[in-house]
Design a protein that fits this description.
Layout: E1 11-13, E2 16-19, E3 28-33, E4 38-43, H1 49-63, H2 85-95, H3 102-118, H4 131-142, E5 146-147, E6 153-154, H5 158-178, H6 192-195, H7 205-215, H8 226-235, H9 237-249, H10 253-257, E7 268-269, E8 274-276, E9 291-293, H11 299-303, H12 316-326, H13 338-350, H14 356-363, H15 370-375, H16 384-400
Antiparallel strand pairs: 1-2, 2-3, 3-4, 5-6, 7-8, 8-9
Helix pairs in contact: 2-5, 3-5, 4-5, 7-12, 7-16, 13-14
Length: 426
Amino acid sequence: MPATKRPKPIYQRGDYKLIRRPDRANLEISWYDTDRKRERSASAGTSCDEAGRLALDRLYLERTRGEAICPTCGQVRQGSGSAAVTSAIADYLVMAADKPSIDAIRARLNHVVAYLVASDQVAIRCVELDAAWLERFRKWALAQPIVSPTGKTRERSLSTIENSVLQLAAAINAAHQRGDTPSPAKFRATPVRDVNRTPQHRADVGQIAAMFRYALALDEPTETTAKWLARHRAYRTHLLNYLRAAVATLARPDAILDISTDSARRQWNSTRKVLALNPAARRQTKKYRPTIPVAHQFVPWLDATEEYLIPINSIRSAWDTMAERLQLPGEGEAGTKLIRRSMAKLLRDRLPQTHWTEIEMMLGHDRFDSVSDIYAPFDPGYLSAAKREIEAIIDEIESAAPGAFYRTITADDQTGGSVVSIRKAR
């Protein structure tokens, strides 16, 4: 019988080919194994062409060491070329796809790619990037404002730029380790702590209560119609839930937006009243997300929520509108981390120094060893001093802003009701 004609590859990288076979549901990756001296294949695990390309890239990067490496002696070939920066970035993103911080990594490297496009340097090689090139990138990036989805602009911080530099160096170093470029990055990022200007402003209980009053639309003009109030209370629901979670948990903004009661994520333990800020499927990063006891005033909101507490990907626009209305300090002094920093200060002012470790653990700055981390949150005394003081602060906020925690105002019911549950669009 005549041999079956091999299908034309959908995508090829080196000797690795992505093939669609008529008798199989998933795409197949085939390559010639020089060690075994035969052709091998593996399923791409998908029938989608784009996902198949990514699967092939990942397999290629995992199994090869780059064209600059001699397969016989393992040494870098003399006169080998250097990979393009864009290729190094693309490969780095493929290998980092499963990291919890992939969204941040991609955003940081997107700034670099934008500069390469704007300056007509798309073909520049990794070995060509030096300190002088880096200064030109920094100057360009500093002049690019950050534009929100609503069109509002703000200056790009130095720390944001250095994070892009840090990520670029990591991409080039990864390319060097694979043998795709003969040398590691010729530059180093300035430590973020040296360029980061930590905001000095801290809100007191009165100012935090004012934020709740805004979210509850309690201070609108007397001539405001009931229909207008209902519409704006509904519009500010996500901001209100963000404020509640920020006060009750002291969590970072991204962790707050990740709070979900979906049982598969194993975050909310209603019986023990314990919240894991890190979902079960997410690996911890340097910005550790602790498991914490929850103030009793916040418990009903979690119990009445299905899936995500805040079903949107960003609270920035609503926060900025509130900050402008309340005339909060500008110049980065009153961003979405303001509640976290302010609650930490309020707790330090109220708790004896012997209990300050509890504050650090609530913030994720300190923790037990790995074994204690599993069992300690279920002890009744776990972070009890911090929890007790948070509950006291919440009661003070409630006195100044009725409805902050003890009742719900929705578009359908201005006197009572329950938490509106909405699935988060991801």
